[in-house]
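Notes taken during the Thursday session

The instructor put the following on the board and asked us to keep it in front of us for the whole hour. The protein is tRNA-specific 2-thiouridylase MnmA. We were told not to look anything up and to reason only from what is written here. First, the residues (386 in total):
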Amino acid sequence: MAAKTTSAFWQRAPQDTRIIVGLSGGVDSSVTALRLVEAGYQVEGLFMFNWSEDEAGRCQAADDFDDAAAVCEVLDIPLHRADFSREYKARVFRYFLDSYAAGRTPNPDVLCNREIKFDAFLHHAERLGADAIATGHYARLVHDESGTRLLRGADPGKDQSYFLSAVPMAALERTLFPLGDTYKADVRAIARDAGLPIHDKPDSTGVCFIGERDFEGFLRQYLSGKAGPVRVSGGPLDGKTIAEHAGLIYYTIGQRRGLGLGGVKGASQAPWFVAAKDLNTDTLWVTQDHDHPELARMSLTTSTPHWLIEPPQLPRRCTAQVRYRQRAIDCRIDPGPDGGLTVHFDRPPRAIAPGQYAVFYDGDHCLGSAEIVAAGHSELEIPASA
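Then, after some discussion, the predicted structure tokens were revealed:
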């Protein structure tokens, strides 16, 4: 991180402040740039190439770059480009593969923010002379004399503070989120009214380097799963082997879709869920009980936490969420093994998955996060072997 100036960027007049916006060619980052231009900042765009290929051998990023360039032409601002694909593969994708190989379910969006958007991109922007950076995230940052605080975005359906919880505070201190107080429904109207050519461009979905393609098929290009039995936990078929899976690495706790378990003799027509993965025996445990104890554990342990506040005195009460789309649940944080945390919930979150992140909040204030190492014991112990 470059040394701070004597006057923080947020204390300076907009016309004296150079902001480089991470432009993806989508509507959110484009409206981010628009708002900063309208506010009087010195604005420039920077397009990041983070992935070099897609399944058709055609680089989708090239089309996105063209869209970003068209937006910059309308806004009359310069556009830079930078290739971070080497850093992405070394610092995000490698960890992604290693985590799946170890039976975890990683969150590459959290890693991409920490390692690329608020590290590689930030440093590149600093070399270009930026006072600060901005992105189209739906989260709020408060910069004042007491420091910087990360808050949930105003739109509860789009809040992305979960994905930003592992970003170093030193990076957030040099960042603006102009969409933090905006609802997604309003962003497209803003882009349309401003004449931005991407106002009706569909949002990107899925993991950035996978997109909408078949996830298991993508993973098979890099990892080979080890086949094993699919066994039932609970109900009339308890303990029975009903199928064979292609590899535990292709499944995550709580997964419902893509199991291929329709028409099991003696089972109801209710959906199946992944209840547990036994890495010692390569057994995939499934259930038709939506409220199975394995999917409703009351505690978890984490790796060393990343705090966006002064490390709190433990134990501490707060709320935590264990997946992006889940609600935060009241909990107590205690010291855990190996410098990590133990989190005890007042009511169980659904489907705690090692490799995901537990993100901690005090109201809207994001306190920090930690990668989930393991879920606590359930009331029902699944046997270790057949």
